[in-house]
Amino acid sequence: MEALISAQVEVTVPFHDADPMGVTWHGNYLRYFEQARCALLEKIGYSYREMEASGYVWPIVDTRLKYVKTSTFEQVLVVEAGLTEFENRLKIEYRIVDKLTNAVLTKGYTIQVAVDLSNQEMCFVSPEALLSRLARLGICS
User: Fold this and answer.
1) Which residue, among 68, 90, 81, has the nearest Cα to 10 in the 3D structure?
2) Which ranges of the chain does DSSP label H, i.e. alpha helix?
């Protein structure tokens, strides 16, 4: 993943995320993506609350997951989220690895678009509210 900026979180697979065989249920990986995405947005200075305060919401319009290997109850995972596109949409790519072996378990991406709260219209260019934060981090001018 060649990210412009990234963030990581650690997740220990809890009992309630596993099936009766101790394998992580596939739908939980999206929650792990969300935890890393929130850490990334905080690092940018544009959390979901800050998005809303700036007059925009950013719904996910597309997602992809590729399951490479299973994870299991009590396994410690490192979930990385990296921003790879921002001009017209947010594309965030993810990688989940086993903390001990660094083996890739899952990878994927989400795509979010800005929607102006004042008129509920989708924006075809990312708003200044995002671009100014990225500029402060030296990601764009």
Assistant:
1) 81
2) 28-44, 48-53, 128-136
The pTM is what? 0.95
Buried b (16+ CB within 10 A) or exposed e, 24-44: beeebbbebbbebbebbbebb
Per-residue pLDDT of the chain (141 residues; tens, 9 = 90+): 789 999 999 999 999 999 999 999 999 999 999 999 999 999 999 999 999 999 999 999 999 999 999 999 999 999 999 999 999 999 999 999 999 999 999 999 999 999 999 999 999 999 999 999 999 999 987
Instruction: Output the CA–CA distances (angstroms, integers) from residue 103 to 46, 95, 98, in the order listed.
Output: 31, 10, 5
Give me the half-sphere count of Cα atoms (radius 13 Å) on the Cβ side of residue 71.
34
**CA angle 45–50–55, rounded 5-degree value:** 130
Q: What is the CA radius of gyration of the chain?
A: 16
